[in-house]
Amino acid sequence: MARVLIKPYVSPNCVLLALDWPDGGSREDFLGFAIRRTPGFRNQPQSWLPNRLGFDGPAPQGQDLPSHENPIQKFLWWDARVDDADRGRQFTYEAMPVVGARNNLQRLEESAAQAVIALPKLVEGRIGTCFNRAVTSSQAFSRKFGGELEGERLEKALAWLANGLEQVIPGFLAGSERLEAVIYHLTDEHWVIPALEAFPGSVSLVYNQTRKDDSNREAVERLRGDRKKFSPRTRASIMHNKFIVRLRRGRPAAVLMGSANFTTAGLTTQANLIHSFDSPALARLYLDRKKLLEEDPTLAETAQQAGWSAPVQVDEAQVRVFFSPERQGQRKSIDAVVKAVRQATSSVLFCLFMPTDAQLRRAIFEAGDRGLMMFGLVNKISERPPQGESENAGAEAQVEIFHRSRRDRDVFAHNMYAGAGRPGGFWWETAELPGPRSQWPVYIHHKFVVIDAETDHPIIYTGSANMSKNSLYRNDENLLEIKGSPRLAAIYLTEFLRLYEHYRARAVWNRCMEGKVETLKLREDSQWARKYYQEGTPEYKARVGMVGGAPRARAARAGRSF
C-alpha cells in the first residue's frame, strides 16, 4: 500500500501542507485525510488539525471538528493556529488516509507520512517578509468581529487584519538614524504618521502630488518640521513607489519596499506585503532613485535611467531592481517577466489588481494550457460577460479573464458569502469596514508573479508596478526580481494559496452551487476526490505538482466539474 506524500510550505503566519496519496484514485472508500500536529493546540502534546466541515455540515459555533473524525477532503490544507510566539518553533505534521464508511472510519496509519517544519520569523537573515490577513469577508472575521465596529473593537479588528504589517514600518523607523523615503500615499493615522512624528532623526521624503490627487497634503503639513523635508512629485501620472531607505553613519544600509500603500486600508483591508532588505548595495539603488525623483524630472528625463540593475546578493537570494517609467515602445521590465513565464517548467502564480498587459496575461494563460499548474487572483471579475468591443487594455483584460474564469476555473477574484446566499450554518460576511466606501473598492492590491514556486529554482517578481501600460510609461514604479530563494517563494506560495482557496470557495458557491444545495458538507464516498485524479484539471495539477511531481502536459483540454 502506497504511503502518503506530504510537502510543507511555511510562512510566518501559517503552514500549508500539500498532500497526495497515489492509491486514492482507485479507492471507492477514500474519505480524506487525518492530520496530527505535535505539539498540539493550547499546550496539548498532540492535536488533530480541525476541519470546518463535517458529514452533517459546518462546525457548530465555537466547536472544532477534528480531522480524524471528520477527514479533510482536500489535498491542500492549512494550519493557521500559530501565533507570533510560535515563530521559530518546530512542529511535526503526520498525515494519513481515512477510508471506510462514515460510521466506520479507518485511519491507515501504515500509509502515514510526516513533515517537520520550523515556523519562520518575520525577519530571517537579512530579509524581512510580512503579508497581512486583509480578508474581512471570512468566517474568522465574522465570528471575531461581527456586529458594530467602533472604538476599541475597531482598533482590534484593524490590527487583526494587518497581522503584523502595522508594526513593520514603525519597527523599520526605530532602527534608523536617518530616513530617505518615496511614498505614494501617506494617510495612515493609526501607526505610520505617529511613528514618523516620533522619529527623532532627519527625514527627507518625496510624495505624490498631482492635480487629481492631493491626498498627502494633510500629512505633509502635520509632519513638516526642521528635520523633515518634503518634496512633491508632480510630473508623473502617479508617483506610485512606496519605499524607505534607512541610513547609518550617513550611508544607505537597508531598504523597505512592497505593494502596501502607507494608508490604513493599505495595511489592513487590502491584500498587501512589505519586504525589508538589510543590504547597503540594494539600499543604494533605491536611494539613488529617490534623489532623482526629488528633483521632479519629466517622464522623458526619468526614462533615460530605465534598466535592470546588476544583481545584488542578499543571503541566498539574487535580487535586481527596475525603476519605471521606460522609454516609449520599450518593455524591458515586463518582458523579463514574460520571458520567465514562458520558460516556466512547473507552475505560474499571479496575484495582481488587474493584469492588463496582454503579452504577460497570454503568456501566463498559455502556461496553464500547456499543462503547468497555473492559478491567478485578481481584484474583480465581471458577474456577467462583458459587452461590446474591447476598447482599451482594461476592458480587454476583463473579457479574457471572465471567460478564463468560467472555462478553466483557475482564475478567481474577491468574493464572499452574502447574507441571503450563504451556505447553511455559515456566518454572513461583509467586504467593508465602517467608513466611507470607495467607488472602486480594492481587495486584492498585490502585484506579484511567482514562477516555479514549489521548485528549487523559483523566480519572484514583486513591487509597486501593476504590470500595465501606465506602470511601464506613465508612473514612477519599482519592480524586484528575486531568484534563488525557495524559502521566499514558499512564503509567497503559501500566502497566495491562502487567499486563492478562500476566494475560490466563495466564487464556486456563489456561481455554481447556490440554490442547488443548502449547505456544504463532507461526502460519504470518494466522489470528492475525482477531480483531483482527473488529468488536466487545476486540482490534478496542484495535487501532483505541489508535492514535487511535474504535471504532464496535455494535448487537449480535459473536462472539469466542481
Structural class: alpha+beta
Note poorly predicted spans.
Answer: 552-562
Q: How much is the average pLDDT?
A: 92
Which strand-content bin applies to the residues?
25-35%
The largest pleated sheet is described as:
9 strands, mixed
How would the global form be characterised? globular
N-to-C terminal Cα separation, in Å?
A: 29 Å
Give the total of beta strands. 29
Total count of helical runs of at least 4 residues: 14
Task: Supply Rg.
Answer: 24 Å
Kindly state the percentage of residues in helix.
25-40%
Structure, explained:
With 562 residues, this protein is of the alpha+beta class. It is 26% helix and 27% strand. It contains 14 helices and 29 strands. Strands 18, 22, 23, 24, 25, 26, 27, 28 and 29 form a nine-stranded mixed beta sheet that branches. A hairpin with a 2-residue loop joins strand 19 (242-248) and strand 20 (251-258). Helix 9 (332-342) runs parallel beside helix 10 (358-369). The radius of gyration is 24 Å and the shape is globular. Mean pLDDT is 92; it is low at 552-562.
List the helices and strands and how they pair.
Blueprint: E1 5-10, E2 15-20, E3 30-38, E4 47-48, E5 50-51, E6 53-54, E7 57-58, E8 65-66, E9 76-79, E10 90-101, E11 104-107, E12 113-118, E13 123-124, E14 127-131, H1 139-145, H2 151-162, H3 165-174, E15 178-183, H4 192-198, E16 202-208, H5 217-223, E17 228-233, E18 238-239, E19 242-248, E20 251-258, H6 264-267, E21 273-277, H7 280-293, H8 299-303, E22 312-314, E23 317-324, H9 332-342, E24 347-352, H10 358-369, E25 373-378, H11 393-407, E26 411-413, E27 447-451, E28 459-463, H12 469-473, E29 475-483, H13 486-513, H14 538-546
Parallel strand pairs: 15-16, 16-17, 18-29, 24-25, 25-26
Antiparallel strand pairs: 1-2, 2-9, 3-4, 3-10, 5-8, 6-7, 10-11, 10-12, 13-14, 14-21, 15-19, 19-20, 20-21, 22-23, 23-29, 24-27, 27-28, 28-29
Helix pairs in contact: 9-10
